[in-house]
Structures are given as structure tokens and as C-alpha cells.
Amino acid sequence: MYISIFDASSSKPQCDLYCFNILKPLLTHASETRTRIENCESSVHDKETRIVNLETELESQNSYGSFIDQPTERSSRMEQLELDQWSIYSPTDSTYSVSCAAEISKLQEQIAALEAHAVTESSVLHIKDNWIETLKIELERCRSDNQPELSSSTGSTTTDSVSCVGEISEIELLRAQIAALNKEIEALRQTKLSFRVRRKESGDVNDKSIMNCDSFENSSSVQQIYIPGVGNCSVLCDSLTAGSGWTVIQRRFDGSGDFYKNWQEYSDGFGSLDGEFFIGLEKIHGMTKSLRYELMIVLTDFHGAEVYATYDNFRLGSEAERYKLKSLGAYNGTAGDSLVNSLDASFTTYDHDHDMWGGNCAKYYNSGWWFKWDTYSNLNGVYANEEESYRNGIWWWTWRNYGVAKTVQMMIRPWKK
């Protein structure tokens, strides 16, 4: 006898549970997929908004075009400058020096303006490059992580690519404009140098615009400059030690010079520019009173080790102020700061005692220097021919205490940011 064990009313809940367990993973995956698609669409929308903002920024940069998008005007200006330089060059003309100096000053102002503009354009270009690269990386990561879901967003992706191509074209245009500016700057520099060469050949050494070695690019020789309050004088330039533009104010290397000098000799300067020398306190004051200078001190020992110290705002007072060390600025270097103790000190020699000690520091240390009660440096001391610890020698306390240096050079140049 067959007996049915199937009861439809009692088996329905079991069937529902069985079907739910089968469908649950599929429903979960569908929910997760929908969430990922929504996140991706939101991310793509954000990228489109950022690219639109970037395009707006680049369009605003076109305001620079009023200056740099006029090649014809620049060419005409260069031709006019070339004609001007020949019309100005007339050694027999009584107004020659004044006109030429004014023209050089005008060229310097134009070069400074062009250099500043080129720096601005380079900065903008660098920012745009970084921004585009960031957008590209983020878009590529979004595409690779969500490739299936992005199949329905091809239109947006194409828009992103077109926008990026447009940004790259703008960047290439900016690069071309910067290259043109650099060419114009170099042409102006060459024009300025040609003026100076012609002045020198004509025997005119009264160019008051040449006040330091910064006017002689890559020069490491003796040059003629004009120092306010002093006049025309010869100086030694150095472009080998730490870049171009340095005017050497003191040099020691073989002991051939005697640096135990009186007040007048330190004021005027002494020695030979092809040997050991001190340029003179009056010349240093004349140079640093009208322009901000940086000071660099380079020392070497008898084993060839070299250290340096720089100060970014070096300035001396006048003779009436006893050539006070009025400013040093910020220190940087490897030698340690052994000059800060001399800040605000007057210069002292054996015949003019301006230190704060009861005796005469110049006599005690056999030199002339900016002494207070004592000193942490003595670069004008007695030269020693071998390594030793010598109080009266050439030393820099934060480097080797009283250990003497084999060579020392002090030099200055106009401070640049």
C-alpha cells in the first residue's frame, strides 16, 4: 500500500528557506556592485570638476600673454636697442659716459623684469605639470580598479582624455614662451657686456655702474670697479671657489705678507692682488653701505681639509664709526660661527685701541681685527708655516680652536635670494 509523505502546506517554508540561501550571495554581490558603480561615477564626476577648474586657471594665465605673446614687438625692441648702442658709442662725445651708464642701467632693469617674469612662468608651468600628472594617476587607478563598471562611462572617460590633451597643449605653449623669454634675456646680457667692452677699449674707466665683481661673469682676475666714496680701484675677482661674482677682500696663503699693520694701513689696504693682501676697510665700507652683501670665509688646514662660513648681510660702518662690524646676517657653513662674537665691535689695531679689554687685543694677538673683550677668530694673525696651536696665528675657534690655518680667503658679493 503506497502512503504519500508529501504535504504541500508543511513543505513551503522549507522551500522558501532553501531558495533564500541560494539567492542571498547573488543579492549581496548585486548590492556591492551597485555601490561600486555609484562610487566610481562620483569619482569620475569629481575628476571632471577638477579638470574644468584647471582649465579655468590656465585660461586666467593667458593674461600674461599681453607681455609674452608679442614676438614682433620684442624683435623691434631688440633692433632698437642695437641701434641705440651704436648711437651711444661715441668716445669723443662729452655726454658719452652719462648716456652709456643710463643705457646700461636701463638694460639691467629690463633683464631683471624678464628674469622675474620667466621665474613666474616656470613656477606656473611646474604647478600645472604636477596637477595634470596627479589627475592622470587618479583616473588610471579608477579605471583599473573598476574596469567592468566603467564600460558604461566611456563618454566621460573620453572627455577626461580630451581635457588632458588640451592641458598638455597649454603647457607646451608656456614652455615655448619661456624659451623665448630666456633668449631675450641672454641677448640683453650680451648687449650689456658689449657696452662694457667698448667702454674699456675706449679708455673710459669711470663706469659708476660697475661696483663689484658681479659685473664680470666667470672672472677670476684683477678688474677695475668704482667704489662709492673711494673712486676707481683694482680688485681681485673669484669665480672658482664658490661661483661667480665674488670680490676678494682678504687673502692669506704663504706668509709673504705682514698683517701686523697700523690703523691707516688697514684703512687704505695693503699687500699685492697677486699675493697676500687686505683690500682696505674704507673700500669695504664703501661697497657695503649702498648694497646688501654676503660674506664668505674659506679656510684650509695643512692636510688639505677645507671649511667655510657664510653670512648673508655683511656691513661695515664708516671710519667715524671705527669701521664697526654693524651687521652679519644669518650664518651658514661647515666651519662654525666664530665671527658672531665680533658683531657690533669696532676695528682695533696696535695704534688704535677700540676693544673693551683693559689692554690692547691687537697687540696681544699680533693682528688687526674686530675685538671686544676677547675674540673667537683671528684671521689677520701671524702666518705659521706648519700645523700648530698658536694664539697669535690664523685661527677660527669653532673649527680647530687655536689650531692655525694654512690658507684663508675672505670675499663678498651682492646678496641674492
Automatic annotation (TrEMBL):
Keywords: Coiled coil
Gene Ontology CC terms, in alphabetical order: extracellular space
Keyword field contains Nucleotidyltransferase: no
Coiled coil: 171-198
Pfam families named in the record: Fibrinogen_C
Matching SUPFAM superfamilies: Fibrinogen C-terminal domain-like
Protein name: Maker777
Annotated organism of origin: Drosophila busckii (Fruit fly)
